[in-house]
Specification:
single chain, 314 residues, alpha/beta, TIM Barrel, globular
Amino acid sequence: MISFGPVKSRRLGKSLGINNIISPKVCSYGCVYCQAGETAKKSINRETFFKPENILNKVEQHIQKLDKDNYPDYLTFVSNGEPTLDENLGKTIVLLKKLDIPVAVITNSSLLHDKKVRDDLNLADWVSVKIDAGDTETWHKINRPSPDLNFEITIDNLILFASGFTGILCTETMLVNGINDSVNNFTAVAGIIKKINPLISYLSIPIRPPALSSVKPPETEKLNIAWQIFNDSQIKTELLTGFEGTDNGFTGNIYDDILNITSVHPLREDSMMELLQNDKADFQVVKSLIQQRLIRTAIYNGKKFYLREYHHQI
């Protein structure tokens, strides 16, 4: 299936997915957490998978079947592998632009040493780049890259691409228990992301069956520390832990407000008190959410934070 959805995305609204990589999975990485399973063919060589005109036709046919309420906000390349391995990616983006719907690409960033790949991605309206590791050793452990790739070169070209990209740029960092959830890695990754200067940096956890069954999400405290380190680096950061919600203001529904905000970022104790006051609610609501294991507390730099609990929901 070339197109699917639209699916609800906190990042992109209604996102109509486009799979431009033919099955089985072809990728430059073999990430331990990948929901598409193990990489069948590990490669950094671009090739043709589908004709651009074929992808356009499939997407047009798909859109024609949708009602107005389901009309996509973005056409998103989220592939069975790495979308930039498609040598016709740029041509396809140009064709899709005729539909007057913004185009997004979610990439692992590994092929940005190729100017043609950078040129293709520059045609997109929104690009998310993956940065899971701050050093070579961690990179190999979590992303299991092709032996033809080099960590330093990958990061250098990621920074090069970011410096010239005029669309919306985001980063995503997947955190895995015992692999890349150390303070040293959080600090190193934050340093890289600071140089990239994305609009938003997303911290995510495995919420679907991963390529390796041993993969687990980090402890809640580690997620909190990662967010705090990114925040201290003045990086606008949001959590992607499988919960939908917004982080804007208050609605009068304290239950929903707490769950929505903590699904995006940790809520400091003083902010929690202010939210309760704005919603004219009692602290008993917080106690109830903790008892239900919907939120939990964590301490960072002597301050108490409230986070959305997720272990029991995965």
